[in-house]
Amino acid sequence: MTSTRQLVKTCAVGAIAMALAGCSSISNAVLAPRPDITKFYLLTPTADTAPPAAAQGVEGDFVIGLGPIKLPPYLDRQEVVTRAAPNRLELSKDERWGESLQNGFTSVMARDLAAQAGTRRVIVFPWYNTVHIDFQVQIDIYRFETDGQGNAQLSAKWTILDSTGKNILYTAESNLTQPSKPRDTTDAAAALSRAVGDLSGQIANMIHQVRSQQGAHPA
After folding, report:
1. Both 115 and 132 in a single domain?
2. Do 89 and 129 lie in a common domain?
3. Tell me, what DSSP letter sits at residue 51?
4. Cα–Cα distance between 75 and 143 in angstroms, integer?
């Protein structure tokens, strides 16, 4: 009888030890630090940093005031946004913009616009009243994200104003698309960057036309 009791005690102690060991391993697995799989992305300029040769020296250098640039509120976040359907957006769980999308868009647009318009003097809004601006460019962005098929889409209204910022010289809406690989955020960021470059190209071309008209008809 004694041996039987001893056996039961031994088995009980072994079972408790095994249970504690199991709980300990589960606890360690749950509480163990998990690797951070978050990825960060940036927009990048697509135009050359040097002004085109054809644009250099035309009527001397000129100054472009860039801004305000307004993005829709749904893009005011770190998460990368994908338009899953016309009326539905998806926010990535582990993919982020490396900086404010507002700042990134503005910075890339300024560099692309400087290169494509042929000036090294692009000043980002706001600027001091004492700063001379030859043209002011305002941009209202309606849409700036990729869809489920990987198409990067940029829709915006843009306006070129004179040096006073009061008279509209030209205004238009642009709807631009650049392809990218579906579900490939690295490629999507590059496609969105190209779309910004396309928009800056349209604005730069119109600034060239306005300057040519002003040269032909000086005030």
Report:
1. yes
2. yes
3. P
4. 9
